[in-house]
Design goal:
This protein is α+β, with helices and mostly antiparallel strands. The protein has 4 domains: about 100 residues, Alpha-Beta Plaits (2-Layer Sandwich), CATH 3.30.70.270; about 60 residues, MutS, DNA mismatch repair protein, domain I (3-Layer(aba) Sandwich), CATH 3.40.1170; about 55 residues, DNA polymerase, domain 1, CATH 1.10.150; about 150 residues, 2-Layer Sandwich (Dna Ligase, domain 1). The chain is built from 14 helices and 13 strands. Strands 5-6-1-7-8 form a 5-stranded mixed beta sheet. Strands 9, 10, 11, 12 and 13 form a 5-stranded antiparallel beta sheet that branches. The protein is globular and about 55 Å long. The C terminus is likely disordered.
Length: about 400
C-alpha cells in the first residue's frame, strides 16, 4: 500500500470583497457588499466581506435586505477582470510550492504537496502557513487552508477556521474530525438532500454510518458510496494536474453587475465571454467542436445546454449563432440572470488533422484573429470590439 498523500484545499476568504479591498483600502473597516450599488434595488448580494457577514448578510440575499442590515455599509458592483487577475496571481504563488495544482473555481484549488514536504522538514502545517502568509503579504488578501490525506476531508477542513485559518486533520483522525460536524458540511449535500437525511435522523456526519448502502440508494437517491466514504473519511480521487484540467475543457464566465432579463444586454455579455474563451483557446493552441452555454439565475440555480458540431474552431464568430440558440433556450420568463458562461470541451490541438471549410478563406480569417489578439495583448482586451459587444 502506498504512502498517504498530503493534500491542501485552499479556499480564498470572501474573495470578491477581499480583492476590492486590496485595490481600494478605503473600503476596509466597514461592511462591504459586492453585488450592486444602492440604486441597484433588484440585485442580490454577490459577496459580503466578513464585517457584513457579522450583520447577517449572506450571498444571494436581496440587496434591499442587505441595506437594512448594514445601512452604513459600502455597496459596490463587481469589477470586471479584477477577480481573474487576482486568481492568476494566487495560482502563481501556488506553483512556487508544488506543481500538482487542481483549480476548482476562481477562488479555490487543491494542492498535492506530498513530494515537496521534505523541504519543510515533513511539516505540512509549516508549508501551509508559509503559503497562506505569502498570499496575505503580497496580494493583501487572505485564504483558509484544510490539510488532510484526501480531497474531501481537506475541503471540509478549509471551512473550519475561516477566515485566515488552517485546519490540519492528522492521518488516521479523519473520522474523529468529521463525526461531530453537521451533515450539510459534506460537499454536494444541498437543501433537498439535507431535508431527506434529516427525515431519517441523520444530522451529524457520523449518523450516516448507522445506515447501509441500500438505504441511501433507495431512500435518499444520492450515490451511496460517496456518502458512506465521506462518513469514513475516505476519498481516493487524485489531484488532477492543472495542465490536464485545462486540456479537458476550457471555460469563461462573467458575473453581471446586476441581475437582468434584458435579452439584448445578456446576449452582448454572452458574446463577450465567448470572445474571451476563444482567445484563450487560440493562445493555448486548441480548437473545439463542443460548446456549452451556462447561466446562473438570480436565485443561484444553474442550467446549461450543450451542442457538438462537425467542425472544430477557435474563432468566436463560428460559435456565435449556436451560442445564441442555446442561450435562448435557457431564458426563463420571470427569472433574471446573474451569470453567463461558455465552456469548450473535447479540445484538440491545432496541429491535429481537422477538416477546414472549403467555402471560406481560412488563412485570411486566422490572420485577422491573430492580429486582433496581438493588439489586445499589447494594449488592452477591450481596445478591439465587434459590433455585437458595443454599448448602445
Amino acid at each position: 500500500m502506498g504512502k498517504d498523500r498530503t493534500i491542501l484545499h485552499v479556499d480564498m476568504d470572501a474573495f470578491f470583497a477581499s480583492c476590492e479591498e486590496a485595490v481600494n483600502p478605503k473600503l476596509r473597516g466597514k461592511p462591504l457588499i459586492v453585488g450592486g450599488t444602492r440604486k441597484d434595488v433588484r440585485s442580490i448580494v454577490s459577496c459580503p466581506n466578513y464585517l457584513a457577514r457579522q450583520r447577517g448578510i449572506r450571498t444571494a440575499m436581496p440587496l434591499t435586505r442587505a441595506m437594512q442590515l448594514a445601512p452604513d455599509g459600502n455597496f459596490i458592483r463587481g469589477t470586471r477582470g479584477l477577480y481573474g487577475h487576482f486568481s492568476k496571481k494566487v495560482r502563481e504563488i501556488f506553483s512556487k510550492y508544488t506543481p500538482l495544482i487542481e483549480p476548482m473555481s476562481i477562488d479555490e484549488a487543491y494542492l498535492d504537496v506530498t513530494d515537496v514536504l521534505r523541504d519543510y522538514g515533513g511539516d505540512s502545517y509549516r508549508l501551509a502557513y508559509k503559503l497562506k502568509e505569502e498570499i496575505k503579504s503580497s496580494l493583501k488578501i487572505t485564504c483558509s487552508i484544510g490539510i488532510s490525506t484526501n480531497k474531501v476531508c481537506s475541503k471540509i477542513a478549509s471551512k473550519q477556521n475561516k477566515p485566515d485559518g488552517i485546519t490540519h486533520i492528522k492521518p488516521g483522525k479523519e473520522k474523529e474530525f468529521l463525526d461531530g460536524l453537521p451533515v450539510e458540511r459534506i460537499p454536494g449535500v444541498g437543501k433537498a438532500t439535507l431535508k431527506l437525511l434529516n427525515k431519517y435522523g441523520i444530522y451529524k456526519i457520523k449518523d450516516i454510518r448507522n445506515f447501509d448502502r441500500t438505504f441511501f440508494e433507495e431512500e435518499i437517491g444520492m450515490h451511496s458510496s460517496y456518502l458512506i466514504n465521506v462518513a469514513n473519511g475516505i476519498d481516493s480521487r487524485e489531484v488532477t494536474l492543472y495542465e490536464d484540467y485545462e486540456q479537458k475543457s476550457l471555460s469563461k464566465e462573467s458575473t453581471l453587475n446586476f441581475d437582468s432579463d434584458d435579452l439584448a444586454y445578456l446576449e452582448k455579455e454572452l458574446y463577450y465571454v465567448l470572445e474571451k474563451a476563444c482567445s484563450r483557446m487560440r493562445k493555448k493552441g486548441y480548437k473545439s467542436n463542443n460548446l456549452t452555454v451556462k447561466v446562473k439565475y438570480a436565485d443561484f440555480t444553474v442550467n446549461q445546454k450543450t451542442k457538438t458540431t462537425d467542425r472544430h474552431s477557435n474563432v468566436e464568430m463560428d460559435f456565435y449563432d449556436d451560442s445564441i440558440k442555446l442561450f435562448r433556450t435557457l431564458m426563463k420568463k420571470g427569472k433574471p440572470i446573474r451569470l453567463v458562461g461558455v465552456r469548450f470541451g473535447e479540445l484538440v490541438s491545432n496541429d491535429e488533422s481537422i477538416q477546414e471549410d472549403m467555402f471560406r478563406d481560412e488563412e485570411k480569417l486566422n490572420r485577422l484573429v491573430r492580429n486582433i489578439d496581438k493588439i489586445r495583448k499589447k494594449y488592452d482586451y477591450d481596445i478591439v470590439k465587434f459590433g455585437k459587444t458595443f454599448d448602445i
